[in-house]
Every structure is written in C-alpha cells, then in structure tokens.
Amino acid sequence: MPAASKPPAAKAGPAKPRRRNARAPAARPYHHGDLRRVLIDAALQLVGEGGPEAVSVREAARRAGVSPGAPFRHFPSRDALMNAVAEEAQRRFRAEIEAALSAAPAGDPLGRFRCLGLAYLRWAMKNPTHFEIISSRRFFDHDRASGVSQDNAELIDLTERMLAEAFAQGQLRVGDLKRVQIAGRALIYGFARMNIDGHFPRWGVTGADAGRTAEDVLDLFIEGIAKVPGKSA
Amino acid sequence: MPAASKPPAAKAGPAKPRRRNARAPAARPYHHGDLRRVLIDAALQLVGEGGPEAVSVREAARRAGVSPGAPFRHFPSRDALMNAVAEEAQRRFRAEIEAALSAAPAGDPLGRFRCLGLAYLRWAMKNPTHFEIISSRRFFDHDRASGVSQDNAELIDLTERMLAEAFAQGQLRVGDLKRVQIAGRALIYGFARMNIDGHFPRWGVTGADAGRTAEDVLDLFIEGIAKVPGKSA
DNA sequence: CAATCCGTGTAATCGGTGCTTACATTCACA
DNA sequence: TGTGAATGTAAGCACCGATTACACGGATTG
Q: What does the alpha-carbon distance between residue A207 and residue B179 come to, in Å, rounded to a whole number?
C-alpha cells in the first residue's frame, strides 16, 4: 500500500508553502501543487453530475490536467478517493447542521430537535448527491479511525440529549426515548432518501413542494410524540 | 476482481465442427435453452453476494456457462439486465406483501396498515440487497411502461385507502391523510434503508434486535397518529 | 424430405477503467 | 551544493461493457 504517507497535508489546508517562485511559467509546472485537493473537488463535481457511480479516477485526473496514474500518488485506490470525497461532504454537512443549531432557541429542546431535523432535511435536499455518498456508509473507510464515525456519534448523542431534556421538561408524552430517536431518524432519513432515490414523483411531490412537505412531515412526527396536541412550531 | 481462471472452453482450433447431433443432451447444447432466466438468477445471486455494483454481465455469463457476448442477445445493455433483476425482485416483494395482507384482519384498517408496514420491513430486512435494487429507482427503466410503476402506484393507493378507512372509522386523530401517508412511508423506508446502509451498528441496533426494533418504531408511529393512545396491535 | 430462415450461441475486437511498475522531475533540507 | 523524498509521467496489465462477423441448429416451409 504505497502513497499512504499523506495524511498531514489534509489538516486544514492553508499551510501550503508557495512552491512556485514568484515567476509564473505559463507552461504547467511538473508538480501540480495541490493535486489531492483538486482531485477531491473534481470527484465531488462528478458526483454532482452523475452520482457516485460516475466518478472515475481517470476522469478526475483528466479534469485536473494530470496523467491517469497521478491520483494514485495521493489515493491508494478509487475507494480511498471516494472516502475522501465522502469525508469532505460530511464536513460540509456537519458545518451546516452546527450553524443551524447555533441559531436555534436554547430553552426549547423539542424546538431544537425540530430545527435539527429541518436543517438535516434541507441540506439533504439541496445537496442530494452529496447526501447520498455520506448516507450509504460504503464510501467510508471502516477500518481507519476517520472523523466520520465520531461526527455521527456526536450527532446521535446530541439528539439523545435533546430528547432527554425535552422529556425532562415535560414536552413529550412518550417515555421510550431510544425508540423516539430511532423513529425520528428513520423518518428524516427516509424522507431524504425518498428524495434522492426518486420516489417523490410517484408520490405527487414535486421539487417545489418537497421543502414544504418535509416540514409538514417533520411536524406530524413531532405532534405525534409531543405532549400538547397542538402545533409545535 | 482478480484474473481468476479462464477455463479453455474449447481447446481445439477452427478445425472442429463440434458435431453435436441429436444424441447428446448431457454435453451443453449449442443453444442454452433459457439463458435469459438463468442470467437474471445469476445476477440476483451476484446482487446478494456483493450488492448491485458487483453485478457484471461477464460474470453472469460465466456462471451461466456462456460466452461474454451471449447475454447481449437477451439484454441490450447491463442496465437492461439490472432492470430485469429489479423487476424480478419487485415481483417477489409484491408477492410477499400481498400474502401478508391477505392474512390481515379485514375490519381493522389501521391494523392492516400496521400489517403492511411490518411485512414491508420484514421483507426489506430479510432481503437487504434485493430491497436495495428495488428501492433506488435507478435500476428501473423509466421510459418503458414496466409493471413496476403500476405496482407501486397500486401499493400507494392501497395505503391511501387504508388510511381513509381508518379515518372514517375514527381510528385516527389527525386528518391530513396525505401527510400521514408520506410520513409513514418515510419512516418505514428510512428504517429499511438504515438497515441496508449500515447505520444500525452506530445506533446500537444489532441484527437480532432489528426485527423487534422495527416493530417498536412502527408502533410508535401508529400510536402517534391513532386516536386511542394505546397499543394498536 | 430438403431448403431455408432466423433466433441464439461464439470469437474477436474496441475503448474505458482501476491499478502497478519503471522512470523523470522537482522540492526540501542537511 | 548535493541528495533523497515527494510527486509527476509513460507504459502496460486485466477486467469490463459493448459491437461485429460468423457458426450453429430448431422451426417453418415447399
């Protein structure tokens, strides 16, 4: 397994020295400079264009203007590239979720739960292909201790705490929180999945309706578990 | 995939007419007999072994004992083969659903709804890879008028009628049936998807628990929409 | 029965793909 | 200033989907 000696460069990129001495030779320099980054971006673009299946190492190399073998200096396999792509998508997803949560009311755990669900759904529907590659775990490296598992564990813990708080404050009328949590996740995940799997046309949900329907469905679920049978927003 | 072994099908050169006149059914006849069927089965088996990605026309041909080009007499492309595979899986799924429904109580629409959901989940969890290929619509031929769309439309209509009946009988405490229907589908689909996408390990759900958890989650949803806050089974 | 048609198999081949190896170039640092 | 490590290229392997030309043989005819 060659080329596995590149993890340091993946750490918050901007520490790259200007390798090209001030003068710019119009001809492409022998060394690309930041091929790893460019390959991930090209792959992300390919995912956006034709789904995960449409990503080929050669095409990514082609778009990066580099020979077909070059990517293998940075990724030992196509799966490793997809892994990096998935981690990048996961990073963006996580950032959006955290931004949404930071703007959520602090004293209303059920409201925060709703806010989290909405942010999840909105991101998933705005970035369907990115969501696809982070949702099916086959693009993550299960052996290596990547940040993905940790990210997810944190998110799961977060919702667990939200629900526990909500229950403690008397916002819920059901006590089996683990069940509520899994059901909620299944609902939200299922909705996002139905979107990217192309189910909505046959459900009479158009793209314009999808966002509204997502909100409706989430509210229906929350009404189902909330103590007060009224609107929870 | 490794090179494997290429068994020399016919070591003889061109000077071998291979007379196979009426008398030898033991040796493989020139015409296979039911290659289409065998190819679909082989592909289904491949799906079961390594997911949809693991299906290759050549491997299916190899397992059917025919040359790599033979399958293209029956399927114009790999996608067409996958299409047939998906339709076969859909057929089996549909059969199981109908069997479960025929054994469901007639006078209790909400109970029938639950029964349908359970049958859906059980089949999806017992045949994860088959469920995968019928759930993401990319393996269906969207142009041709296949029975799949009709199947799904019928299933959707069926649940719609169930819910309408349940509401008419006063079993539901919510009136927006379309929303209930989509939420229910999202919940069930999401749960099945979480299973095949490998989410359960990080949710503390093991294979043994999965069936029980599926039932729990489905019941939680039904409790959320049912008028009487009791168990609905 | 014999001739023929045509559905269905084989063989050879093409371009695309992941991946490896050998070699070339350049950067970073002692 | 030299030198090794990092990172690019070139060539080539096996497998893949797909196409084409040809071979076989069952079914339909006269």
A: 16
Residue B173 buriedness (CB in 10 A; 0-12 / 13-18 / 19+): middle
Q: In Å, what is the CA distance from A161 to each residue of A6, A113, A120, A202?
A: 37, 10, 17, 37
Token couple for A229? 């049978």
State the pLDDT at residue B3.
Answer: 32
| Location of each CATH 1.10.10 domain in chain B | 35-73
The C-alpha atoms of residue B84 and residue B95 are separated, in whole angstroms, by 17
Q: Are A63 and A26 in contact (CB under 8 A)?
A: no
User: What pLDDT band is residue B136 in, cutting at 50, 70 and 90?
Assistant: confident
Q: Can you name the residues that pair with B200 across neighbouring β-strands?
A: none
CATH code for the domain defined by A86-225: 1.10.357.10
Q: Thinking of the domain A32-75, which architecture would CATH place it in?
A: Orthogonal Bundle (1.10)
Q: Gap from A67 CA to D9 C1', in Å?
A: 7
- Cβ separation of A193 and B193 shorter than 8 Å? yes
The CA distances from residue B68 to A147, B6, B52, B56, B62, in Å, are 43, 12, 19, 10, 7
Sign of CA dihedral A186, A187, A192, A198: positive
pLDDT at A6 over 70: no
Q: What is the C-alpha end-to-end distance of chain A, expressed in Å?
A: 53
pLDDT at A25: 40
Q: How far apart are CA B68 and CA B88, in angstroms?
A: 22
Query: Exposure string (b/e) for B131-140, b if CB count within 10 Å is 16 or more?
Result: bbbbbbbbbb
| Predicted pLDDT at A213 | 96
- Give the integer Cα–Cα distance in Å for B78 and A11: 41
Chain B hits for A51, CB-CB cut-off 8 Å, are 138
Say how far apart CA B61 and CA B6 lie, in whole Å: 13
C10 C1' – B68 CA distance, angstroms? 9
In this complex, is the C-beta atom of A220 within 8 Å of any C-beta atom belonging to chain B? yes
Contact: B202, A174; criterion CB under 8 Å: no
pLDDT of residue B29: 66
